[in-house]
């Protein structure tokens, strides 16, 4: 959104759009991810965290791009399959190819609710949507670890009809929820609540072929608001309980219905898995 990189966390006025409650002393996952994707909506503290991670794991930028591309492919496939409602949890700072843009390229009247716990994401999303039809989209600041604050939220229900299929997107967000916080029960609550024909879209960080590498990279997140939890393919598959997995199942992120032939570099990006399940 902003043209220039944001300033020092200790100095310089906040950009006009940024809410006063944003914390510039801790790295935030949304802003680290924005930096990895080449965005400008991040602070020194986020860039420092990302650089620590990149030093340990140079593939992290390619992983971030592969993840964003997966989100795009999943939304397009589901929209083309007839889904017109999207609940995008852990939205991130909206960039080109965001959920609404892709969904509406297939269904101009697609309904999209963006949920994130980070006030800076909500500010960006609201600015982006200020001209949008309020009947078709909403921005909700909520924490996925408290599913009821999303599932019982009036603003969510004002846009999405829970009697009809909804694609629930949890793309690169569940790895910020620990087992102690019941990540699998949280996903199950969403699956239980949505109507048959709804979809669950998940991507999630994993250990990968160079054991310990992601573990070292996430030390960059040490001072961040959320720690990253790595899960293996079978633990990620377990998020899809109560759904039928679409082909090709839970696979490394670039390999979910790729739109081009994957090269060796992409096939080596096994530091995360993704899948899409349909509730029957
Ligand atoms: C890596 S970004 C992913 C953005 C987008 N889903 C994508 O894949 O392109 C993770 C996002 O999840 C959000 N997030 C992390 N923990 C969360 C939580 N407990 N509740 C809601 N959002 C959360 C972060 O603020 C960030 O925007």
Helices, strands, pairings?
Blueprint: H1 29-36, H2 44-56, H3 60-80, E1 85-89, H4 99-106, E2 111-116, H5 119-129, E3 137-141, H6 147-151, H7 154-159, E4 167-171, H8 183-193, E5 199-205, H9 213-217, H10 233-237, E6 244-245, E7 251-252, H11 264-267, E8 272-278
Bound molecules: S-adenosylmethionine.
S-adenosylmethionine binds at residues 29-30, 33, 67-68, 71, 90-92, 116-118, 121, 143-145, 171-173, 176, 226.
Describe the structure.
GO terms for molecular function: methyltransferase activity. Residues 1-21 are annotated as: Disordered. The chain contains eleven helices and eight strands. The chain has helices spanning 29-36, 44-56, 60-80, 99-106, 119-129, 147-151, 154-159, 183-193, 213-217, 233-237, 264-267, and strands at 85-89, 111-116, 137-141, 167-171, 199-205, 244-245, 251-252, 272-278. α5 links the parallel β2 (111-116) and β3. The relative contact order is 0.15. Residues 1-11 have low confidence and may be disordered. S-adenosylmethionine binds at residues 29-30, 33, 67-68, 71, 90-92, 116-118, 121, 143-145, 171-173, 176, 226.
Protein traits:
about 280 residues, alpha/beta, Rossmann fold, 8-stranded mixed β-sheet, disordered N terminus, binds S-adenosylmethionine
Ligands, deduplicated: S-adenosylmethionine
How are helices and strands ordered from N to C?
Answer: HHHEHEHEHHEHEHHEEHE
Low-confidence stretches: 1-11
Rg estimate, integer Å:
18 Å
Q: Work out the helicity level.
A: 25-40%
What is the first-to-last residue Cα distance?
A: 39 Å
Count of strand segments: 8
Report the biggest beta sheet as strand number plus sense, adding barrel if it closes: 8 strands, mixed
- CATH class, named Alpha Beta
Specify the overall morphology: globular
Number of domains: 1
Average pLDDT number = 91
Please identify, by name, the CATH architecture. Answer: 3-Layer(aba) Sandwich
Strand content: 5-15%
Please work out how many helical segments DSSP would assign. 11
Q: Which structural class do you get from the secondary structure elements?
A: alpha/beta
């Amino acid at each position: 959104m902003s043209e220039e990189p944001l300033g020092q966390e200790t100095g310089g006025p906040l950009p006009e759009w940024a809410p006063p409650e944003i914390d510039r002393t801790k790295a935030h996952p949304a802003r680290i991810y924005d930096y990895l994707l080449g965005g400008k909506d991040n602070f020194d503290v986020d860039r420092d965290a990302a650089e620590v991670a990149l030093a340990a794991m140079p593939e992290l930028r390619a992983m971030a791009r592969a993840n964003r591309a997966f989100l795009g492919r999943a939304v397009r496939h589901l929209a083309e399959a007839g889904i017109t409602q999207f609940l995008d949890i852990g939205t991130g700072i909206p960039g080109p190819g965001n959920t609404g843009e892709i969904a509406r390229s297939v269904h101009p009247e697609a309904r999209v609710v963006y949920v994130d716990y980070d006030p800076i994401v909500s500010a960006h999303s609201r600015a982006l949507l200020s001209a949008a039809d309020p009947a078709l989209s909403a921005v909700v600041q909520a924490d996925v670890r408290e599913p009821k604050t999303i599932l019982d939220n009036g603003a969510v229900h004002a846009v999405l009809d829970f009697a009809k299929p909804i694609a629930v997107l949890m793309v690169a967000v569940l790895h910020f929820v620990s087992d102690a916080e019941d990540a699998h029960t949280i996903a199950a609550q969403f699956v239980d609540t949505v109507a048959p024909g709804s979809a669950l879209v998940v991507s999630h960080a994993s250990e990968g072929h160079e054991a310990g590498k992601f573990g070292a990279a996430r030390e960059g997140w040490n001072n961040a608001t959320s720690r990253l939890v790595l899960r293996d393919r079978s633990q990620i598959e377990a998020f899809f309980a109560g759904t039928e997995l679409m082909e090709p199942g839970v696979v490394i992120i670039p390999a979910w219905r790729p739109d081009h032939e994957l090269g060796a570099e992409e096939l080596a990006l096994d530091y995360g898995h993704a899948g899409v399940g349909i509730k029957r």
